[in-house]
Protein: Copper chaperone PCu(A)C
Amino acid sequence: MNRRRAALACALALTTGLALAGCSSDSGSGGEPELKVVGAFMPQPVSDMAAGFLVVQNSGGTADRLTSVTSPLSDDVTIHETKNQKMREVSSFEVPANGELDLERGGSHIMFMKLKQKPKQGEKVSVELHFEKADPITVDLPVKETTHNPKKQ
Ligand SMILES: [Cu+2]
Structure:
């Protein structure tokens, strides 16, 4: 969208003979974050807490940040990192340009506290991911068995 406008500005600059810095924004630097969520799941919770895992891929040339997560399952959803096997809340996670943010078992995750109900394997939990720059993304986390770990299959 902005990229198209930038391209148009570049074309105009060329035809009018103006030199315009930033005309190379189509080549991968600059532009907007382009986000996609893959591999989302929630292990079936065994208490009134649950964790969510997913990967946010960014095919754009600009980094973004995951700043918060909301869900109908809980009014207390935070994002956690794990350091030395202890988890702690963070205010945001970077989604690098042309890279990805991995929320995976044993590492960073979405934390759901005080669950309003306990979702079971086969059900889905809707979450909305909020970013610093990109529009929010709504994604369904399929509930998997408690020990599910796609990286270790
Ligand atoms: Cu946690």
Q: What stands out?
A: The first helix runs from residue 2 to 15. The two ends are 40 Å apart (CA to CA). Residues 80, 87, 109, 111 surround copper (II) ion (CB under 6 Å). Confidence is low (pLDDT under 50) at residues 20-28.
